[in-house]
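User: As part of a screening pipeline, I want to sanity-check one entry by hand. Below is the sequence and the SMILES for pyridoxal-5'-phosphate. Please return the complex as structure tokens so I can compare it with the automated output.
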Amino acid sequence: MLNAYEKYICALDTTSKLRKLPVGPTLGPHIFTDFASNDYLGMSKNLDVISAAQDAAKEFGVGATGSRLLTGNLSLFEALEAKIAKDKGSETCLLFNSGFQANHSVLASLLDESTLGEKPLVFFDKYNHSSLYQGVWQSGAEILRFKHNSLSHLKDLLERYRHIDRPKFIVTESLFGMDGDFAPLAEIADLCRIHNALLYIDEAHATGIFGPQGLGLACEFGTENFPLVIMGTFSKALGGSGAYLCCSHTVKEYLVNKAPGFIYSTAPSPVSMAAASKAWDLMKAMNGERKRILGLADDLRKELKESDFDSGSSRSHIIPIRMANENQAVAAKNILLEAGVLVSAIRPPTVPVGTSRLRVALSVNHTDRDIECLLKGLKTL
Ligand SMILES: Cc1ncc(COP(=O)(O)O)c(C=O)c1O
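Assistant: Here is the complex for your manual check:
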């Protein structure tokens, strides 16, 4: 039987697609300029966040000791849920151990055919994160992928299925994590109203950077008259781990009774939830930092354009640099690493075939000098 796994690994190896855990400079203290991490607001090492985590460990212990439905329902979690729901203008909120777990478990549950009575139709942006796809796939729902950020394609598909009276869902990221571009959320919301569809938004990369006080892009358009579920993570700009889901009371109660990833998993660690709670409070006051990161991003995009690099449709702190092919992306990443600059090489299957790129993620810790180093390294490619 083990042969089958070996064959799988060999096939990846021969096509240069074998992933390896990084060793060397990417472990331990940073000795390079890091444009690969998602710690956009530098919260992972914020002393107030660390201190809140330490206090929580002393008060609650390092673990929740059980599922929230058994021994793990700490007051800390309920307070954080209430705070996030209030800030995001949502009826309620539910915490998860990770963004992946939330997307996977929530979508698989919301799309359950036996609950809905019919197989749902899911209109799904082609560039959505794997965790969103895994949840939809597991549910067995009919999936209709629309071209990345293409309202016209989404409209066509919805029109084609207009007279099919099955539950409809539209699933999208608000800020796309690999390309740094925005979904047209206000227009998608209108389509949800017209077609009576539920909108599921992943705010993993927008949380902390976009929207009023960094509360996300879903706060920036009208959310009346259609069902809305918003997932956001604590693992990017908030520097820690875990996720939140903003939804109605009914959806929360349903998930507490249905979502295996919630029911059968030990509740998040009080340490990570206390860190997330402190980072959430700090994030709201970081308008200056947000402005600075986005200013750096504008400057970098301008410089890249002048040097004939293609940064696609990025309009955020996440900037792709398109490469001709996978090998070129990996070679470029390695050359930059030798020059002390860490970026991610993003290849299929993370992104569609033929769209390999370097991914540069800017953070509050970057200086003009760091950007110069990156540009200098890129010019040697
Ligand atoms: C868009 C998106 N959603 C969800 C996730 C998963 O979040 P987490 O890392 O908290 O599991 C990621 C992680 O990279 C992501 O980019």
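Points to compare against the pipeline: The first strand starts at residue 33 and ends at 34. The chain has 14 helices and twelve strands.
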